[in-house]
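Q: Given only this backbone (94 positions), what sequence would you predict?
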């Protein structure tokens, strides 16, 4: 079975996602408790930034592992991985 590039950092990613999950619950609680709009927006921005960080880390792992492996193999597999990573970058940039 092929391993994904993030396997070595899996626990770190899971811990970061757990913290982000807590941030989201905190935002939910803030709205439920009628907190000030700007304070809620600040927390939303922090959660988005944290998710973006996870996404960029995964993208980096993907390029260093999966794309590098495909380049080493060459041919159509490399073309597919380059297209795949290009589309992932475009999604993250939105």
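A: Predicted residues:
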């Amino acid at each position: 079975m092929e391993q994904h590039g993030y396997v070595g950092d899996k626990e770190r990613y899971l811990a970061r996602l757990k913290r982000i999950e807590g941030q989201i619950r905190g935002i939910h609680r803030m709205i439920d408790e009628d907190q000030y709009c700007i304070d809620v927006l600040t927390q939303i921005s922090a959660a988005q930034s944290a998710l973006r960080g996870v996404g960029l880390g995964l993208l980096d792992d993907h390029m260093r592992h999966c794309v590098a492996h495909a380049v080493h193999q060459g041919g159509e597999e490399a073309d597919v991985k380059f297209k795949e990573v290009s589309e992932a970058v475009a999604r993250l940039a939105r």
